């Protein structure tokens, strides 16, 4: 009799472990109610998951390119490659005086976070990941050129202040990446109600799914801070790429797993702010100059 009891208890423990392992929130979602109840819950969950997956698959197949995460992810990657290419192009044909010391450090952090996001999102987007790695390298080179230009023109104090800001931003980013997972587990298991639920969310504030789109908020903010930037200091390739990126990712964010509404919202803002600069540059270079001639 004791052997039967031990076996039954072992089965219950095994089911609990499996349930916790497959939990997407990091919190225990299956309550103990006997072996039969646990098995029934497992079957019901599996059945629901099958139905959802089948529904999503049918929807994706029926909707074609409009509901294809792969299509929009590829389009977003192409636009993002354009942004990296713009930085490389600008470094070869334009002087360092046009480099924005507001935008460039933000782009470095942005691409670092999105390289990580593209690796773990479903479906994984390797093209997007590698383009952001390339952009980190390209933007770092642009930052180097801009700082050397400032130093050579006797603006050492401004350079020192900028480096402090970059250090603080980099430190906060590194701290969030290192400490985020630990803080997420602690808060999600603390039984704090709404706070624990937010902490345990798949795209919550302790995951890269939240901070990658938040970095785009900083890009939009940098664009908005420079709304009256002289048009001769606006990079047409860079803002064309940012405009397209905002457009494609607005749709892409609604098709990935987990669905990322924050990413969708910030890309709407990115599209609008970047298109503003893009339009000003086009007007200045191709409309106003043509009228003068």
Give a description of the structure.
The chain is mainly α and 293 residues long. It has two domains: 2-60; 68-292. It is 77% helix and 0% strand. It is built from ten helices and no strands. The chain has helices at 2-21, 35-63, 69-93, 103-120, 126-152, 156-188, 194-200, 208-225, 236-252, 261-292. The relative contact order is 0.10. The model is unreliable at 2-60 (pLDDT under 50).
Helix content: over 70%
Give the amount of beta strand, in percent: under 5%
Total helical elements:
10
Supply the number of structural domains.
2
Short description:
The protein has 293 residues and is mostly helical.
Helix and strand topology:
Elements: H1 2-21, H2 35-63, H3 69-93, H4 103-120, H5 126-152, H6 156-188, H7 194-200, H8 208-225, H9 236-252, H10 261-292
Helix pairs in contact: 1-2, 3-5, 3-9, 4-5, 4-8, 6-7, 8-10, 9-10
List the keywords.
single chain; 293 residues; mainly alpha; globular
């Amino acid at each position: 009799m004791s052997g039967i009891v031990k076996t039954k208890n072992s089965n219950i423990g095994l089911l609990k472990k499996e349930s916790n392992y497959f939990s997407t929130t990091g919190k225990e979602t299956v309550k103990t109610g006997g072996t039969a109840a646990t098995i029934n819950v497992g079957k019901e969950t599996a059945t629901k998951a099958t139905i959802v997956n089948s529904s999503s698959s049918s929807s994706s197949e029926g909707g074609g390119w409009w509901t294809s995460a792969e299509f929009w992810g590829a389009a977003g990657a192409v636009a993002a490659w354009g942004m990296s290419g713009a930085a490389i192009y600008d470094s070869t044909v334009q002087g360092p005086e046009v480099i924005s010391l507001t935008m460039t450090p933000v782009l470095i952090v942005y691409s670092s976070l999105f390289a990580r996001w593209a690796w773990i999102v479903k479906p994984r987007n390797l093209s997007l990941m590698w383009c952001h790695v390339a952009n980190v390298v390209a933007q770092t080179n642009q930052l180097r050129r801009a700082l050397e230009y400032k130093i050579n023109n006797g603006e050492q104090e401004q350079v020192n202040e900028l480096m402090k800001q970059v250090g603080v931003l980099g430190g906060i980013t590194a701290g969030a990446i290192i400490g985020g997972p630990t803080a997420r587990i602690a808060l999600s298991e603390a039984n704090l109600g709404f706070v624990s639920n937010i902490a345990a969310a798949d795209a919550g504030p302790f995951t890269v799914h939240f901070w990658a789109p938040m970095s785009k908020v900083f890009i939009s903010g940098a664009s908005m801070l420079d709304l009256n930037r002289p048009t001769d200091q606006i990079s047409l390739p860079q803002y064309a790429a940012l405009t397209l990126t905002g457009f494609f990712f607005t749709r892409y964010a609604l098709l990935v797993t987990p669905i990322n509404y924050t990413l969708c919202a910030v890309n709407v803002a990115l599209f609008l702010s970047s298109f503003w600069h893009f339009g000003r540059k086009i007007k200045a270079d191709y409309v106003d100059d043509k009228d003068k001639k």
